[in-house]
Description:
By secondary structure, the chain is an alpha/beta fold. The chain has a domain at about 95-130 and about 245-460: Rossmann fold (3-Layer(aba) Sandwich). Helices cover about 40% and strands about 15% of the residues. It is built from 20 helices and 15 strands.
Amino acid sequence: MRYLSTRGPTAAVHDPAAPGFTEILLAGLAAxxxxxxxxxxxxxxxxxxxxxxxxxxxxxxxxxLSRFIDDIPPADLKALLARTYTAQAYGNGRxxxxxxxxxxxxWLERPDAASGEGGLAILELSNGPTLAFKDMAMQLxxxxxxxxxxKRGEEINILGxxxxxxxxxxxxxxxxxxxxRVFMLSPHQRMSxxxxxxxxxxxxxxxxxxxxxxxFDDAQDIVKAVSNDHAFKARxxxxxxxxxxxxxxxxxxxxxxxxxxxxxGGIGGSNDRQVAFAVPSGNFGNICAGHIxxxxxxxxxxxxxxTNENDVLDEFFRSGVYRPRATGETHATSSPSMDISKASNxxxxxxxxxxxxxxxxxxxxxxxxxxxxxxxSDTPFFARLPAYGFVSGRSTHADRLATIRHTFEKYGLMIDxxxxxxxxxxxxxxxxxxxxxxxxxxxxxxxxxxxxxxLGRRPERPAGLQGIEDLPQRVEVxxxxxxxxxxxxxxxxx
Length: 494
């Protein structure tokens, strides 16, 4: 499997000079500023689905990811996945049976064959070490980095930006890893107290936290600017763990397959019944993985994109206009991990939408990168949009409070604010002929203030995270400045 850039000179298939998986794993962003994608999406058959239904999560991950990775020996890849997806790592106080599932499906309303109702469920993705779905990919990324760097005898310095959960997930995955240092940018005072404490309380020598006086988009722009300084990137061996790194997205594809099997009845289930997935979306990485699973042949009938008040993506899927907002127009909300107005992974989907034409992408993102927008409403591209299965909706603070209350009162389940956005929009856009699976984003303990506002009670948290906000914190606060970030990197590495 070879990879190409969304902004490359061509989209030629079978280019012998194109990079393989391990090369793009370490590179992150392509040299031309684009994002890597496989030159073609591997296809899965009904027979594949039948064989994969009974697999453990680690074995399913091997079945899926081996389609994308051919430059790591199969035995080594299988061992890496077995070491990553364990009941110990994803137990979080659950029963042994639930922990072994890694991502158990919780039915809120079971399918009813008599009425034809497909059912409503939540796919639990947040039982990893940082209580967020980002752990599903990031724990693997840490092991992949360590493996590839050891084979090459190299080191890497990770530069990333987080709106809340990516940062802690990356730091917990990379802490203590040989040959890896992490420089993580976050928006100053824009995350929950729990999210800040998870990151800033780490004192490992290879972890460096930098808080930027701005929004997530400002931090993300800095990461891209540093990555596009090719001389600096090469000298300081800069890599990425944001979802601009293809390995992150590829690892997330796996749980769509796992969720599909669970929603369609386990081992005896159908291999052609369609399922809908509702996905809280900020940076488009999570739902992009669903798009890729669908392109591979997984029978996904609908991909329901749910935004909060920062509804740039909802606006596009409704109107064809992609209009990123400036920092001053980006709302600080009670689902802060989605307070994003420039969805970096959106470029991957648009690349497919426009027929994988990198010249079109270069033209569109030349406008976006200069602070502008683009409009596809009167183009053939927008007419193709329904074929990809996307629908979208928006959720507000009042909506998520109401959804949290309703879910707790009716189903006895406490959910976090982002999952509430997904459940609200997913419930509105349910279609009776297919199950609706809402992807859980995080555990409610990460957003205690809003849970208390909604329910008048504090969410439970794992014993090891009690009082985390009281631990000493280590973070450097800076203004929005590419040069300031470069100087911090130099100071620690020179």
